[in-house]
């Protein structure tokens, strides 16, 4: 993500000012809003994503991630807001946007009684693609599916199904790839391989916006956006999001440290305390107040730590306003 503004920055080489090039924003949406039955489920969400970057979209269940993705790819019309996707108007050029975006939904519709290759051929037809046979062969090769092309999709493990779904989503060579919780329920090895593929696609120039609940996946994104109750609460690199939260953390290690959470949580200056393996994480806005709150537990060794992304997200969510109430 980026501010989208050209700015004068000092040149490292000459010492003189130079104009930083306008970043190539392929997603630039502002104030997107969607209501369902009187309830605002996406509330003035703005998002900018630069070409070739991987943006992680995080937030609790029901926070509006899928709804936002569907507005960005032209499947859903916003009730308010505007924007451009690949330079195309989000409202007036939805058909053109759809053709240039790949979208892998949570429950991807693969045909279980067709083989891998037949599934891809089907999607090639749906997109009206030329050179169907070559494209399918390339996709099978590129995503490591060539040796399994005759296997029935229904017999694949979760990880291979995701890989096939990804192959189908990029068959028409979209410039933007929207992934909605693509690795839910997939084992760590398969998730890692899936993410390696995402990075390969991004290196090839594809822009990826991916929703996830996994913190390790957030760490693999260039930038992240955090939404709760329909509102965008934080955007930027992980370092920027952590710093922007204003949260400080103490890590406590030693005998029984992991059992102290309930005794520390709720003390002045403590936003939250949670076990972290055999250690404990205590977070709050002021490090001196945190040290005071844990001072009596002197059998535990305390040291300042970087708040985890999870700490930051829970803190942000607790401070956000619940939108589950329907407007009168
Ligand atoms: N077509 C619809 N009609 C009515 N309500 C809807 C519709 N689509 C989504 N919602 C509601 O909007 C809210 C946001 O849903 P959305 O699926 O966008 O959230 P999400 O962040 O993707 O959640 P999850 O992480 O569980 O997938 C939810 O409360 C959902 O029930």
UniProtKB/TrEMBL annotation:
GO terms for molecular function: ATP binding; ATP hydrolysis activity. Keywords: ATP-binding, Nucleotide-binding. Residues 27-254 form the ABC transporter domain. InterPro entries: AAA+_ATPase (IPR003593), ABC_transporter-like_ATP-bd (IPR003439), ABC_transporter-like_CS (IPR017871), P-loop_NTPase (IPR027417). Pfam families: ABC_tran (PF00005). It comes from the Bacteria. This is ABC transporter related protein.
């Amino acid at each position: 993500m980026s501010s989208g503004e050209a700015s004068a920055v000092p040149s490292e080489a000459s010492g003189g000012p130079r104009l930083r090039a306008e970043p190539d924003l392929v997603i630039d949406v502002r104030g997107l809003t969607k209501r369902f039955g009187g309830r605002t489920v996406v509330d003035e969400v703005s998002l900018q994503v630069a070409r070739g970057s991987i943006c992680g979209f995080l937030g609790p269940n029901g926070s509006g991630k899928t709804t936002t993705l569907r507005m960005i790819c032209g499947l859903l019309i916003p009730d308010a807001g505007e924007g451009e996707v690949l330079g195309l108007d989000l409202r007036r050029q939805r058909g053109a946007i759809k053709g240039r975006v790949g979208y892998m939904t949570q429950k991807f519709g693969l045909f279980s009684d067709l083989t891998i290759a037949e599934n891809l051929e089907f999607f090639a037809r749906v997109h009206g693609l030329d050179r169907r046979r070559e494209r399918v062969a390339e996709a099978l090769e590129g995503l490591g599916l060539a040796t399994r092309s005759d296997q029935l999709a229904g017999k694949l493990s979760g990880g291979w199904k995701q890989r096939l779904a990804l192959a189908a989503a990029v068959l028409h060579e979209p410039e933007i790839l929207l992934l909605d919780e693509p690795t839910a329920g997939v084992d760590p090895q398969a998730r890692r391989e899936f993410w390696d593929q995402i990075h390969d696609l991004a290196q090839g120039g594809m822009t990826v916006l991916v929703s996830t609940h996994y913190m390790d996946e957030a760490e693999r994104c260039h930038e992240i956006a955090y939404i709760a109750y329909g509102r965008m609460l934080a955007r930027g690199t992980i370092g920027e999001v952590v710093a922007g939260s204003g949260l400080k953390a103490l890590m406590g290690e030693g005998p029984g440290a992991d059992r102290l959470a309930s005794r520390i949580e709720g003390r002045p200056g403590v936003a939250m305390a949670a076990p972290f393996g055999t250690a404990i994480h205590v977070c709050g806005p002021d490090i001196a107040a945190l040290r005071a709150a844990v001072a009596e537990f002197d059998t535990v060794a305390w040291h300042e730590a970087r708040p985890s992304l999870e700490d930051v997200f829970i803190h942000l969510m607790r401070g956000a306003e619940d939108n589950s109430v329907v407007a009168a």
